[in-house]
Amino acid sequence: MKKCLTIFNIHVGYISTTYLSTWALYFVAKNTNVLHKIREENMELAKDKKYRFITYEDVLKLKYTNKVVEETVRLANLSGFIFRKTIEDVDYKGYLLPKDWEIIVWTRHLHVDLANFENPMGFNPNRWEIRPKVGTFYAFGGGWKSCPGNMLELLNPDVKLRYLSHPIPTDGLQLLFSEI
């Protein structure tokens, strides 16, 4: 059973990181100004790298690129809902949710609710300069039920965007981007 769960968890991580990376590429292609900012940030980091591989410490320095990934997670979250259980009777908008009821929180609604985010359907990495209010962003669940692979999920597109933003990769093939 342990082997089965391990294989399942690796497969789930593969799907989610691929999904997030694909959406990150889509949003960057639709917003070429974002690509230019990612490129500037990464070229600054590359000045002293001499084509060394990127490290985890380097990824942490990519503040704007990280914001792009977080904004991608907000708009294209793979997990549309999370399961919770009420720990006491709750009155929600005139409805009684009794203690021990299992409920589903639709996180996608939280992520695109005008009450939580200004222009919620717009792709704006700068919104992450200020952390969202508590209870408005649940990309990876919360508490002890948080996704154990959330750091991998965020790291994978960071690395891809870092290498994507180089105008001339080390193999000499120039990449040209235009807005979709």
From TrEMBL:
This is Cytochrome P450. One of its GO terms (biological process) is brassinosteroid biosynthetic process. Coiled coil: none annotated. Pfam families: p450. It is found in: Membrane. GO terms for molecular function: heme binding; iron ion binding; monooxygenase activity; oxidoreductase activity, acting on paired donors, with incorporation or reduction of molecular oxygen. One of its GO terms (cellular component) is membrane. The chain crosses the membrane at residues 6-29. Its main location: membrane. The keyword Transmembrane helix applies. It comes from the Eukaryota. PANTHER family: CYTOCHROME P450 26 (PTHR24286), CYTOCHROME P450 FAMILY PROTEIN, EXPRESSED (PTHR24286:SF12). It is a single-pass membrane protein. The keyword Metal-binding applies. SUPFAM superfamilies: Cytochrome P450 (SSF48264). Keywords: Heme, Iron, Membrane, Metal-binding, Monooxygenase, Oxidoreductase, Transmembrane, Transmembrane helix. InterPro entries: Cyt_P450, Cyt_P450_CS, Cyt_P450_sf. Gene3D superfamilies: Cytochrome P450. Belongs to the cytochrome P450 family.
